[in-house]
Each structure stands twice: as C-alpha cells, then as structure tokens.
Specification:
about 240 residues; alpha/beta; Arc Repressor Mutant, subunit A; 2 domains; four-stranded antiparallel sheet; about 40% helix
C-alpha cells in the first residue's frame, strides 16, 4: 500500500486494460478515475484534481499525443505516464518531446507500472519539497531572467513562450552556470527517468530552446556545446 492516497486519472479506451489497471492501482492504495476517450479525459485532467495521468496513445477522437501536447502547452504540470501498443522508437521520442514523463509499451507488467508510478510521484514530491524549502528567487544571466516560481522566462523585457521541458532545461542550466551536463544526465534530471538511448531527444530540445533564447541560434552565446560531453550554460561573467 502507498503511504498516502494519490489520485490517478486513467485515459484508456480498452475496457479490459482499464479494469486491470483500476483493480491493481486501487489494491496499491490509489484512488482511480477511468475515462475512455481523449476529449473527455483532457477536460478532467485540466481540473487539476489528480496527481498523475496514465494516458493511452491510441484513443478515439483526440489521441494521446494530442492530449499530452495540449496539456503541456496550457501549462499543466501533471505527471504523464504514456501507454501504447506500438514499440516504435519514433513514438517514444515524440511522446517525450511533447512532455510525457515516462513511457511503457504494451504488454507491460503491473509491477513495472507500479514502480514507474512510484518513481514519478517521488520526483514530484521532491521537487515540491525543494521549492517549499527555498525562496526560488529569479535568476538573471545576460539578457535572460528566469523566475522558477512563476515559471516565466524573460529576454529583454519580453516574455518567451517555452514548453514545460524547455523551461525545465533552462532552469537547470541557469541554476548551475558553467557546469557541463551529458545528454544522459539531462534526461535523468529533466525528464526524471533514465530513458537510455533517447539522448537525441535532448538535442531536439536544445535546438528548440536555442532558437527561442539565442540572438543567433547557429552561434549560441548561452547554451554551449561541450564536445564529447554534452552542454553547459555560460557563466555570468562570460556573457558577451
């Protein structure tokens, strides 16, 4: 049983799988709500009354990828564990890039599912504890100001629209200027789970982030490539 009650939203159109999930999750101490379609599910997810979303990729009408994309674009930080019957690498990469926190391919074991859920909930609790235990003051490096509490990025007095993962990447970099991170370290710290083999997901996010914050994305001033390692954010005294 879990130490405290968490509410989990399941958006899954396969009734047999949904019932299996509901039975096992409730046995593990979770409160579960099941929705069978994406359009209804996204409205329920928007209420903010759940601690985690288990989201099937192949849904009637509004599919799982679109549900994930809309929630992240709207600024919802609900942890998302995506399920799919497909084992194509492109689907996994797209799901992660859209903001899914973890990914399981059907068929999967219930024990692995429960372990992934506990991992995601622990990470959220740690992030909330860290935020509550510090002032999380805005950070300014060069022309960029990042407010971790308001989750706002400003460049030259203009707000920059960032996705959830882009903001988290920038926040990690600006909190540790000058530190070099490997792609695997960025995956672990920003995505919260060891997605081995998906380091190019980081490359995609770095390129998109550079396009939004760099004066010249082809010749970056802020996010510097460290050849053979990964990336680092420039230190305040080195900003051109």
């Amino acid at each position: 049983m879990t130490e405290s009650t968490h509410s989990i939203l399941v958006i899954e159109d396969d009734a047999d799988i949904a019932r299996l999930l509901q039975i096992n999750l409730e046995q593990d101490g979770y409160v579960v709500r099941w929705i069978a379609d994406g359009a209804t599910g996204i409205d329920v997810a928007r209420t903010g009354s759940h601690d985690l979303l288990i989201l099937d990729l192949s849904l009637p009408g509004l599919n799982g990828m679109e549900v994930c994309r809309r929630l992240r674009d709207e600024g919802h930080h609900l942890p998302i564990l995506m399920l799919t019957a497909r084992d194509e690498e492109a689907d996994k990469i797209l799901g992660l890039e859209l903001g899914a926190d973890d990914y399981l391919t059907k068929p999967f074991s219930i024990r692995e599912l429960l372990a992934r859920i506990r991992s995601l909930l622990r990470r959220v609790a740690m992030e909330q504890s860290a935020t509550a235990g510090s002032e999380q003051a805005p950070v300014t490096i060069g022309a960029i100001t990042l407010d971790p509490v308001k989750r706002v990025a400003i460049i030259d007095e203009a707000v920059v629209e960032l996705t959830v993962k882009e903001f988290d990447l920038l926040g990690l970099f600006m909190a540790h200027p000058g530190r070099a991170y490997s792609r695997q370290q960025l995956l672990e710290q920003v995505w919260g789970y060891e997605h081995g083999g998906y380091e190019h997901t980081v490359n995609t996010h770095i390129n998109r982030l550079r396009a939004k914050i760099e004066p010249d994305a082809a010749n970056p001033n802020y996010i510097i490539t460290v050849w053979g390692v990964g990336y680092r954010f420039i230190e305040p005294g080195d900003v051109q």
